[in-house]
Design goal:
Number of helices: 11
Shape: flat
Number of strands: 0
Helix content: 55-70%
Order of helices and strands: HHHHHHHHHHH
Radius of gyration: 21 Å
Strand content: under 5%
Number of domains: 2
Distance between the termini: 43 Å
Length: about 260
């Protein structure tokens, strides 16, 4: 059932397919094969239902326009910079702040480089998660870190799109904060998470950005975006943070003292 669900998501929105890298790094061959098979079946069913023309049009017309940003021409409008939480939007924010070289071409290049970087991040995170799975004695913590990594990676992959509006672009990051809070106990940690949650809940989409755009608004949006990226990268790259495993020196000392 998981393969069917992930396969459907991958052929529907493309970016959830990055989770397949995690399956491969964990050597979950059956799950990966089920995902690929399900995706192929959905593609065949779509071909039988609507024919080949929508596929051809998507590959040769719509996909290039999505990749270049032409399909979302409004993302170049100045009032869209604070709203757009994608990597493309990050470049437009820098452009609004007067940073040289932040053209539409540079934004497309940054998005492509980010996609390659994301594959590397998925590989590293997946291998570290597998190491945690093999060595940790706390099954509930392992499940929690699985959920954190998968959700963080999904959010990071979604930022590859040319346009990620703040109206829903950081919802996955908000969910991730709840999973991080599940293992926090100190008051200052909770206060920091609440502050981050409030920042990630700010919505400017819907005509709330004045023209000309105030510099402080662009800076605030940039800070929120970078913080969101940081939270997700942390969850993906450090699934073993603060974990005492069965073969770690601290665990051995604890057992000896006990």
């Amino acid at each position: 059932m998981g393969g069917i669900a992930l396969g459907f998501c991958a052929v529907s929105k493309i970016f959830p397919g990055v989770l397949g890298i995690v399956l491969l790094m964990q050597r979950r061959w059956t799950a990966a094969a089920a995902t690929i098979a399900a995706g192929a079946i959905f593609v065949v069913l779509a071909l039988l239902t609507v024919g080949a023309k929508p596929f051809v049009d998507f590959v040769y017309y719509q996909l290039p326009r999505i990749d270049s940003g032409e399909a979302f021409f409004w993302i170049e409008f100045p009032d869209m910079a604070p709203v757009n939480q994608s990597v493309y939007g990050l470049v437009t924010k820098l452009r609004a702040l007067g940073v040289p070289g932040t053209t539409a071409t540079a934004a497309n290049l940054a998005s492509s480089v980010y996609a390659v970087l994301l594959i590397v991040v998925a590989i590293v995170g997946g291998r570290r998660l597998q190491r945690l799975t093999e060595t940790s004695t706390d099954a509930s913590l392992v499940r929690l870190r699985h959920a954190q990594l998968w959700l963080g990676l999904l959010s990071l992959a979604s930022f590859r799109s040319p346009f990620v509006p703040d109206a829903y672009g950081l919802v996955g990051t908000l969910w991730l904060l709840t999973l991080i809070a599940a293992e926090r106990q100190r008051l200052r940690e909770w206060a920091a998470l609440v502050a981050l949650g409030a920042a990630f809940s700010v919505v400017l989409d819907g005509g709330l950005v004045p023209t000309p755009v105030p510099v402080w608004m662009t800076l605030a949006s940039l800070a929120i975006q970078l913080a969101a990226y940081g939270v997700n990268f942390l969850a993906v790259l450090t699934p073993t943070r603060g974990v005492v495993t069965a073969d770690s020196p601290s665990d051995l000392s604890a057992r000896v003292v006990g």
